[in-house]
Predict the 3D structure of the following.
Amino acid sequence: AVPADPAWSIYAGRYVDPDSAITDVVFRGGKLVMIGFSFPPEENPAGAITELIPAGLHTFRINDGGTPGEFVVFEMGTDGKVKRVKATENYLVPVGP
């Protein structure tokens, strides 16, 4: 496991996809994770938590059972804030300011 770098706080926040599904990116247990919210809720809420493994500048891979999975890329704006996130085949945009 790779401990979270405090510099990754720029990625933390709430994001939404075109279908209005919400995903939070947070620090949890010393790791950067994505938490997906669905309706109806997951039977196993832990199944909605995805660990992100660093793979380059603004780029992570999904921890797929201990092996690197698909890419998650944080696309940054000129203001240094996340403009959108390409998570596997979906794009997520920040919610709020």
Notes: The chain has a mean pLDDT of 88. The first strand starts at residue 13 and ends at 16. Strands lie at 13-16, 22-28, 31-37, 49-56, 59-64, 67-76, 82-87, 90-94. The chain is about 0% helix and 55% strand.
